[in-house]
Fold:
Amino acid sequence: MIFKNILFDLDGTIIEPKEGITKSIQYAMEKLGYEPPDSEDLLWCIGPPLYESFQILFDKKDRDFILHAVDVYREYYSKKGIFEHTLYSGITRLLKQLKSKNFKVFIATSKPGVMAEKIIEYHSFGNLFDGIYGCELDGTNSKKTELLKYLLVKEQLKAEDSLMVGDRKHDIIGGKENSLMTCGVLYGYGSIEELKIAGADFIIEKPDELLSIQR
Structure:
């Protein structure tokens, strides 16, 4: 693999977050007086920035309401939902292989950075990452394009040496808009059609296939 830097999305790419995210959304909707959908009907919310998903879910554009809804969501997520996830099979092995081959590896997630750090710490593999990047609690850098631009500048990474890996179109589009090569993963929440339309340069079915891709 002819890259030096690998940038990973978190939800749907490193971790399977369905339980924690859907329960947190249902908690927020119930507390705000809405009838929550079943968890299976909330899977589309996994991946995009929460602020954008909530505008659709609540059918509201009012910024103050959306910010409040996100705060209510975090009441559950920060205490319970954050730990209600599993690692995808093969991820830890892949990360260790990348580390042994001297790749620089980063997390680039629309989830708040402080929460992403807690998840990585929970699994005790912070030593396998060179940096963890997410949005601010107020939503700054929640769009993947903005986040990746910030990461590249902060870490002084060359776009041509870097690969963005993720499961949704937001990861692919964000990578493309920063001149990165991109790799979509099919074990997460995006379909092959979504990833192809977004313009993914590579598409893999299992984590360990990442090591075999070539430009």
Summary: Residues 63-77 form the longest helix (15 residues). The chain has two domains: 5-16+86-212, 18-83.
